[in-house]
Amino acid sequence: MTLKIDVTLDYALSGPTDCLAQIYAAQTPHQKILSGVLTTQSIKPRSTPAEEGIGERLWVQENVALQWRYTAEVEISRNAEDIVGLSWQKPHDLPPEVVKYLFPSRYCPSDKFLAFVNAEFGTLQGGAKVVAMNDYVKQNFAYMVGTSDAETSALETFVLRQGVCRDFAHMLITLARAGTIPARIVSAYAPGVEPPDFHALVEVWLDGAWHLVDPTGMSIPSETAVICVGRDATDIAFLTTYGPAELRAQSVQVTKV
Predict the structure, then answer these.
(1) Is the Cα dihedral 27, 31, 34, 36 positive or negative?
(2) Are strands 199-206 and 209-213 parallel, antiparallel or unpaired?
(3) 73 burial class (0-12, 13-18, 19+ CB within 10 angstroms)?
(4) Which of 11, 102, 130, 190 is close enough to 224 for a disulfide, judged by CB 3.0 to 4.6 Å?
(5) What letter would DSSP give residue 218?
(6) How many angstroms separate the CA atoms of 76 and 90, rounded?
(7) Phi, psi of 213, deg, nearest 5
(8) Taking the CA atoms of the chain, what radius of gyration do you get in angstroms?
(9) Per-residue model confidence as pLDDT tens digits over 208-244
(10) Is the dihedral of CA 243, 247, 248, 249 positive or negative?
(11) What's the CATH class of domain 83-234?
């Protein structure tokens, strides 16, 4: 299956501003970049590897505005998965590079949820536990645009019972980590997301590998193009500006070819 991606970013800046973007679809064993073009109004950005070497960070200093258009075609070869029967690894058996995804992070205060997770999911293990946690988030939280902001953590989402895709992802990550299952956030392009935008999913470490899960239920993980991964939204932001920036226009279109 192939996805066609078309992204437009238009932000006004107050002066020379360093900008960091993560919008390229990543080249991975499960997705092949057939074509990719970035059109800018200024110099070509400098590329550096993103977290875990998945995807790219694009650095540039813009003066008056950041006006970019990114188009790509990505061939997806990721299989649909049923994770319910996958096994769990004890923390001391985890690969060193995976252990950090057990720790609390800025938006995922998993240490605050230990008692809740033990009471709610303590009889389950591995994939069955993740599936139960994912179902819990889907059934108990409402997807509502404009109900959270850049400061909203999973603790606040748990109280409000509403949010957008990043809030759903933070919630599932927090529950998984509290249940001693490594979890990380994934930025991705996914067809069918409403409203169309950069989409956030979750990867959980089960049976010795990472597996994609969408707690919003809006996307099919096997039909998404991964952009980058990280501990939480801090690591995967599509645009970070080191100075004031005003949104003028933005669009994300993802279609199956």
Answers:
(1) negative
(2) antiparallel
(3) middle
(4) 190
(5) S
(6) 32
(7) -140, 140
(8) 18
(9) 999 999 999 999 999 999 999 999 999 999 999 999 9
(10) positive
(11) alpha beta
Q: How many CB atoms lie within 10 A of CB 247?
A: 10
The mean pLDDT of the chain is 96
Using DSSP, state whether 119 is helix, strand or coil: helix
Determine the Cα–Cα distance for residues 119 and 113; give it in Å rounded to an integer: 10
Instruction: Please state which of the four CATH numbers 2.60.40.2250, 3.30.390.50, 1.20.1600.10, 2.40.30.60 is assigned to the domain occupying 2-78+238-256.
Output: 2.60.40.2250
Q: Domain-by-domain residue ranges, the chain?
A: 2-78+238-256, 83-234
pLDDT for res 252 = 98
What is the signed CA dihedral for 167, 224, 229, 154, rounded to 10 degrees? 10
Checking if the pLDDT of 148 tops 90, the result is: yes
What's phi and psi for 85, nearest 5 deg? -95, 5
251 SS3 class: strand
C-beta atoms surrounding 152 within 10 Å: 18
Find out whether 223 and 1 touch, Cβ atoms under 8 Å. Answer: yes
Q: Please, where are the H alpha helices in the chain?
A: 114-121, 126-140, 154-160, 165-178, 233-236
Place of tokens 């690969």: 95
- Give the strand order in the sheet containing 56-62: 46-49, 56-62, 17-21, 239-241
**218 vs 122: CA distance, rounded Å:** 28
**Does the pTM of the predicted model rise above 0.90?**
yes
